[in-house]
Amino acid sequence: MRVGVLGGGQLGRMLGIAGVPMGLQFRFLDPSPAPPAAAVGECVCAAYDDEQGLQRFLEGIEVATYEFENVPASAAKYLEGHVPVFPGWNALEVAQDRLHEKRLFEKLGIPCPNYCAVETLDDLKSALTSVAPPCILKTRRHGYDGKGQHRIERIEEAEEAWLAIGEREAIVESLVEFDWECSVLCVRSKDGTSKTYPIVQNYHRGGILRTSHCPPAVAVPPDLEATAVAYASRIAHDLEYVGVLALEMFSVGGRLLANELAPRVHNSGHWTIEGAECSQFENHLRAVLGWPLGSTEVRGYSAMVNLIGQEVDPCSVLSLGAHYHWYGKEVRPGRKVGHVTVVEASAEARDKKVSSLQERIAQHA
Ligand code: AMP
What are phi and psi of 299, to 5 degrees? Predict the structure, then answer.
């Protein structure tokens, strides 16, 4: 059975790694000639909206899915005319546009930061009277890893921010003084059954995820975790979602504010490869194939450290008893090129190992 994946980055590669033991074959569509997923399946090198490329991608695949959400609507709709595509276009449409995302949160009673949609510099200037600085101007579309964002500290910086993001449709939102950031990954199958992995604590710097801890290193009130899980499940249910979705949130004063939705496997779930009974990658495949979902129970205290813009000697990481993942990408500043996971029997052992790991990574920087 062959699964088609739009996008051939590291998420596609890890989907392939999870699917091969179950006898699955993979075909990836990616505009670059040798993407990371080429190690685990065939690659069709074409633009996402190239109809001939899409035709080659479709040949002999059972189902199509995504590892990348910024796929043009035309491509998603074309595929849907030929094979089952999960998650459905409705989920991508919401996740591609920060305004649609916020409106979904509001519709479902999920709190999010105070925001205002803006289309012109004048809109932005008047929005700053209700969404007072400090705030963040974010492009509605095509932003990731902190790109397409500009912080506004004072009203006078409106024009600079507007030019910095390229004068595009945007939203301006209050800067949240959060205590910590978190995410919940939910997997939902075709028959509507869903499971969630426990809440994950995430640490970002410069808009890029650096580490994830599950369970969190901070104390989490039980009702906060239950709320986070309820929010992610509510979204999955409302969208009649099939596959894994991630909901990123800010924890502030014991409350949760939704930040972003990812309609795919997510970096904050990479720890599940070694740290959960069934990884997010395997569960995503099971869901899109209509197979029974695997257990989302954890196997211990996990943490994931991203390797960003730098190599590390695999031996220095492996000798700590950590798990090393390299994506086969060219190293460039700010680029996610691999990650390392630790799974331990206690939070103390995990946190100690993460410190040693970070020291070793820093030595290679
Ligand atoms: P995003 O691309 O929206 O997921 O933002 C990336 C990261 O930037 C988040 O994980 C936060 O660390 C930070 N960030 C984004 N929006 C806000 C906000 N409104 N307040 C505080 N930090 C934010």
Answer: -105, 5
- Give the model's pLDDT for residue 42: 97
Angle of helix 222-238 relative to helix 98-107, nearest 10 degrees?
110
The token pair that represents 206 in the structure block: 């410069």
* pLDDT for 145: 66
**149 Cα to the center of ligand 1, angstroms:** 9
d(CA 74, CA 53): 13
Instruction: Give the C-alpha distances (Å, rounded to integers) separating 5 from 51, 187, 253.
Output: 16, 17, 40
Number of residues that make up the chain: 365
Residue among 359, 355, 353, 276 nearest 321 (CA) = 353
Closest-CA residue, ligand 1 atom 11, reads 207
pLDDT at 364: 81
Query: Is residue 142 classed as helix, strand or coil in its secondary structure?
Result: coil
Residues in the chain predicted with pLDDT less than 50, given as ranges, are: none
- Say how many Å lie between the CA of residue 259 and the centre of ligand 1: 7
Q: Does the C-beta of 148 come closer than 6 Å to ligand 1?
A: no
286 alpha carbon – ligand 1 mean position (Å): 31
pLDDT in tens, 179-193: 999 999 999 999 999
Nearest CA to ligand 1 atom 4: 260
Cα(206) to centroid(ligand 1), Å: 9
Model pLDDT, residue 161: 95
User: Using a 6 Å cutoff on CB, does residue 30 contact ligand 1?
Assistant: no
pLDDT digits over 92-136, tens only?
A: 999 999 999 999 999 999 999 999 999 999 999 999 999 999 999
Domains of the chain and any CATH numbers: 2-85 (3.40.50.20), 114-174 (3.30.1490.20), 180-363 (3.30.470.20)
Ligand 1 proximity of 175 Cβ (cutoff 6 Å): yes
